[in-house]
């Protein structure tokens, strides 16, 4: 266990090192910082002096060492745009992203397990076929398009005039397919409750929850089909195994066989894939947050790119690197706990 | 293998066509209407996209043909439509039908290009890792692990963002097609490398490889001429999924403004530019390219599903 954690730590340090070198290397190519700091009338000799004082004339390695020393102490420099420490800017945007990921994960878990299990137990039933068909369509729709469609339907509204108005049925069908479109689709809303520090939550008020629904559903929409298909495939494999047949032969009720015996072993691979996918969701938050103008890390990152706000870009990359390494480590630990046959220190899978 | 196509029966060496006709793949394709429909839709879209200069009534790249006065016109089934523009116009007054055709061509070009690059890199590295083993294997697979743990979309977004920030927007949009192929290709090679490595490991200890080695062939020749042909079926299967993924990745990058510029839009940048106008009621600018994208990706995905069922290789999960 300790050996595993140390190994993971080395792994993480290596990853962070690579990211930091890459991130630092691009800094040089983004124009002259001195030019952005001083006016046009400042003579070249003074510019040279500022450059010397800031250490911009030092060799690359010396500059990198200085950057790394500050970074290890949690100092990633000042954001050009916000004019405050980059890490503080990220800390302010982090809760919004985490709440979005949390809500999406909740939706995924609540829906994927029952649907996956049902369609594994009754693979030929029309409902399972419907779920499978919908899930492959879901995989094929990019997350930002789901978001746009949701906005069109629930935030803007759709007025259907496809059926003739004269008959009662036509009017009823028109009404049935039309939507009012009064869901909020922009930002986090006005009714946030401060929990602690800079963490304002959306989860405490009705208005906050309303604002959370559409972004969370569209973020969940990309992973939900994957999980349904994964759970179904694993469950169908488990149902073929000897111990399930044995449990069935013993006369244990089917419900117990499915949900106690089979489901447990189905969840093993789901946990590994799932953990990695929760990390992947961070990538999709960039897309979701852009569509809904959700003021989280992803939107902040994209703005930082458009403003060439290097310290902010670098710190975002480092923080995301930490998030990925931590989730992967936790997933491996949980996997080791639920499946004792896996030796963490042995050959990594 | 002779190419005599007219041999009446399978008594002689069967021709390629006959082998295809007798294969399980053809049999299963004949019975699977979904696969037939998807293949038909896919082929139609590819032909329409690459014949877009012939099919499109206007040339959307030609600024002289664009009239800003006719912007945001609705498609033909909605009142207020202009009969010159069957699917309506976008915010710049470009004919949506033409621009969607051209956009599909760009999307397909980038999708195929990126997958070819991924396959070249991934197959080479996967073969090397699996066949040579040892330190090469460790380094390559550790690299693949790290890259995959970051999720390919994340890698693509970050690389795209950094390249754009370093080179400047003007340069980036000038070479956007090449850049996107490069970025998506570099981001997704580990998928191929892992699949190929797994099947190479299964093949490598078989007797024909030993025989080739005993004959004194160089490892490069054994890898590419002997082992590689036997790992083709999983490569085919993941290729379909990867094309779909590459098209979606391209759309995502373009949607974020890291992809094709609006002057030469792909489906993704069309969706992006239309999204700015969705609040004003012009839903067709964004949803028509969106629907085309979904149909394209869906047909590729369904074909991939069918191909996986037919070839049934033990694929790497996740």
UniProtKB/TrEMBL annotation, chain A:
Membrane-spanning residues: 9-27, 100-118, 130-163, 212-231, 266-287, 310-335
Bilayer topology term: Multi-pass membrane protein
This protein's UniProt keywords: Cell membrane, Membrane, Transmembrane, Transmembrane helix, Transport
Location of the protein in the cell: Cell membrane
InterPro entries linked: BPD_transp_1_N (IPR045621), MetI-like (IPR000515), MetI-like_sf (IPR035906)
Record keyword Membrane present: yes
Coiled-coil ranges from the UniProt annotation: none
Keyword Transmembrane found: yes
Main localization, broad class: membrane
Residues annotated as domain ABC transmembrane type-1: 94-335
Family of this protein: Belongs to the binding-protein-dependent transport system permease family.
Protein name: ABC transporter permease
Lineage of the species this protein comes from: Bacteria, Pseudomonadati, Pseudomonadota, Gammaproteobacteria, Oceanospirillales
From TrEMBL, chain B:
Pfam name, any one: OppC_N
Membrane topology: Multi-pass membrane protein
Chief site of localization: membrane
Keyword Transmembrane helix tagged: yes
Transmembrane segments: 33-55, 106-131, 143-163, 169-187, 227-248, 283-304
Alphabetical keyword list: Cell membrane, Membrane, Transmembrane, Transmembrane helix, Transport
Cellular location(s): Cell membrane
Annotated ABC transmembrane type-1 domain residues: 104-304
CDD domains reported for this sequence: TM_PBP2
Keyword presence, Plastid: no
Gene3D superfamilies: MetI-like
UniProt cross-references to InterPro entries, sorted A to Z: BP-dependent_transpt_permease, MetI-like, MetI-like_sf, OppC_N
Record family assignment: Belongs to the binding-protein-dependent transport system permease family.
UniProt name for this protein: ABC transporter permease
């Amino acid at each position: 266990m300790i050996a595993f954690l140390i190994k993971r730590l080395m792994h993480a340090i290596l990853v962070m090192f690579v990211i930091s070198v890459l991130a630092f290397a691009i800094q040089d190519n983004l124009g002259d910082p001195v030019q952005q700091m001083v006016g046009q009338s400042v003579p070249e000799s003074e510019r040279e002096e500022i450059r010397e004082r800031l250490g911009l004339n030092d060799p690359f390695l010396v500059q990198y060492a200085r950057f790394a020393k500050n970074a290890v102490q949690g100092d990633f420099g000042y954001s050009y745009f916000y004019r405050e420490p980059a890490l503080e800017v990220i800390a302010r945007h982090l809760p919004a992203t985490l709440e979005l990921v949390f809500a999406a994960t909740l939706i995924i878990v609540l829906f994927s397990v029952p649907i996956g299990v049902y369609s594994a137990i009754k693979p030929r039933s029309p409902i399972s076929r419907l779920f499978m068909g919908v899930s492959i369509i879901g995989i094929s729709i990019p997350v930002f398009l789901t978001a746009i469609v949701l906005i069109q339907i629930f935030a803007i509204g759709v007025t259907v005039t496809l059926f003739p108005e004269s008959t009662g049925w036509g009017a009823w069908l028109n009404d049935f397919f039309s939507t009012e479109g009064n869901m909020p689709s922009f930002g986090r809303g006005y009714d946030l409750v401060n929990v602690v520090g800079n963490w304002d939550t959306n989860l405490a008020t009705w208005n906050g929850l309303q604002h959370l629904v559409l972004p969370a559903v569209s973020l969940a929409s990309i992973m939900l089909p994957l999980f349904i298909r994964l759970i179904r495939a694993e469950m169908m494999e488990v149902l073929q195994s000897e111990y399930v047949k044995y449990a069935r032969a013993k006369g244990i009720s089917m419900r117990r066989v499915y949900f106690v015996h089979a489901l447990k072993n189905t969840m093993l691979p789901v946990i590994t894939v799932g953990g990695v996918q929760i990390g992947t969701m961070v990538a999709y938050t960039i897309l979701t947050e852009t569509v809904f103008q959700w003021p989280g890390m992803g939107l902040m990152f994209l703005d930082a790119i458009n403003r060439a706000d290097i310290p902010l870009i670098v710190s975002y990359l480092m923080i995301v690197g930490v998030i990925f390494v931590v989730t992967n480590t936790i997933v491996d630990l949980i996997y080791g706990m639920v499946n004792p046959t896996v030796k963490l220190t042995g050959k990594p899978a | 293998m002779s190419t005599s196509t007219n041999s009446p029966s399978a008594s002689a060496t069967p021709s390629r066509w006959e082998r295809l006709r007798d294969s399980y793949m053809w049999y299963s394709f004949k019975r699977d209407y979904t696969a037939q429909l998807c293949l038909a839709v896919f082929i139609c879209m590819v032909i329409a996209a690459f014949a877009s200069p012939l099919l499109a009534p206007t040339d959307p790249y030609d600024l002289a043909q664009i009239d800003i006065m006719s912007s945001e016109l609705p498609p033909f089934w909605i009142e207020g439509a202009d009969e010159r523009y069957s699917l309506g116009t976008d915010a710049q007054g470009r004919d949506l039908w033409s621009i969607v055709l051209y956009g599909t061509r760009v999307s397909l070009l980038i999708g195929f290009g990126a997958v070819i690059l991924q396959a070249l890199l991934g197959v080479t590295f996967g073969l090397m890792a699996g066949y040579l083993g040892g330190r090469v294997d460790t380094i390559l697979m550790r690299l693949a692990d790290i890259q995959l743990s970051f999720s390919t979309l994340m890698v693509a977004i970050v690389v795209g963002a950094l390249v754009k920030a370093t080179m400047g927007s003007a340069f980036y949009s000038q070479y956007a097609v090449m850049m996107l192929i490069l970025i998506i290709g570099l981001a997704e090679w580990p998928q191929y490398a892992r699949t190929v490595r797994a099947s190479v490991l299964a093949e490598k200890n078989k007797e024909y490889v030993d025989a080739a080695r005993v004959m004194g062939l160089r490892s490069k020749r054994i890898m590419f001429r002997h082992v590689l042909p036997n790992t083709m079926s999983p490569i085919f299967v993941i290729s379909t999924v990867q094309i779909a993924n590459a098209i979606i990745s391209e759309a995502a990058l373009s949607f974020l403004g890291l992809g094709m510029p609006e002057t030469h839009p792909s489906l993704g940048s069309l969706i992006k530019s239309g999204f700015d106008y969705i609040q004003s009621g012009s839903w067709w600018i964004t949803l028509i390219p969106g629907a085309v994208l979904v149909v394209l990706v869906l047909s590729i995905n369904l074909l991939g599903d069918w191909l996986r069922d037919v070839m049934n290789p033990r694929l790497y999960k996740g």
